[in-house]
Amino acid sequence: MHYTRLNNGVEMPMVGFGVFQIPDQDQCQKVVEEALRIGYRLIDTAQVYGNEEAVGRAVKASGIPREELFITTKLWISDYSYEGAKAAFAESLKKLDMDYVDLYLLHQPVGDVFGAWRALEELYQEGKIRAIGISNFMPEQVANLALFNQVVPAVNQVELHVFHQKEDQQAYLASKGIQLESWAGLAAGQFNVFTNPILLEIAEKYNKKTSQVMLRWQLQRGIVSLSKSATPSRIAENFDIFDFELSPEDMAQIATLNSNTTLFDDYHSPSSVETLAGFLGKSF
Predict the structure, then answer these.
(1) Is 241 among the domain residues?
(2) What is the pLDDT of residues 72-102, one digit of tens each?
């Protein structure tokens, strides 16, 4: 396993397993147990995923010492306030059945971000969270949060894949000591990523799969990546990226795939913000 050192000195695994859209508790527990057995040590869940309890049970069942694992969960916008964040974190900790989490993120840049962040800062200072960070924040939102609060985020987790490479965002975050982490690292299987000619050619050269090439590309860029699968063979494949290295020519070829295309909603458009706010009963 490769690790990155966050801006507060905490070491974070570079390759992680995510559990988005695995709400079934039994299935989630089984796939997390399998991921841990294979060698993953970073597990990423969230309050809104509805599977924190399953992750906690899988961790307990694995028998792996807690200090060897890196557990991430996230605060949803419904609890974005100082008091709301404190209560929601306590509930997440209870569901995970843990004394602390390694990384706690604000899931979206919508709502009372500052109130929630002040709560995270206090929980961090109390030792209940080893590092605090954000998810889906644009650089200007990162700057605003960092400049007007005490703790600079350790991580920003964003959509990032070969079709949405975000080199400018990575450079900005790196200049501020903030680690970039990806979600949808395999582009959610869209754009025919598993049969893309450039990725296939590179994969065949190393006797690997295109999924492994995409994750290795992120590793070599210094990006923490998350992948997800409910199939044991694919869980293992996505972890098997440490025994080869892409050449500079490979990296340059992959760079040509960038189209700055989001596969999901643009969370920063006014309509998307309004949609998220609508879940909280907010509207113009």
Answers:
(1) yes
(2) 999 999 999 999 999 999 999 999 999 999 9
Q: Confirm if 73 and 107 have CB atoms less than 8 A apart.
A: no
Give the Cα-Cα-Cα angle 166, 172, 135 (nearest 5 degrees): 65
Structural domain includes residue 2: no
| Distances, alpha carbon 88 to alpha carbons 80, 143, 156, in Å | 9, 25, 20
How crowded is residue 99: how many other Cβ atoms within 10 Å of its Cβ?
9
State pLDDT tens for residues 223-260.
999 999 999 999 999 999 999 999 999 999 999 999 98
Task: List all residues 6 or more positions away from 25 whose beta carbon is below 8 Å from its beta carbon.
Answer: 51, 53, 54, 57
What's the domain count of the chain? Answer: 1
Parallel/antiparallel/unpaired status of strands 15-18 and 225-227: parallel
* CB < 8 Å & 24+ apart, contacts of 229-234: 229/31, 230/22, 230/27, 230/31, 232/34
Instruction: Report the CATH number at residue 88.
Output: 3.20.20.100
Which residues form the domain of 195? 12-278
Distances (CA, A) of 119 to 42, 71, 131: 24, 19, 13
- How far is residue 26's CA from residue 29's CA, in Å, rounded to a whole number? 5
Query: In the prediction, which pLDDT does 201 show?
Result: 97
Which are the catalytic amino acids?
49
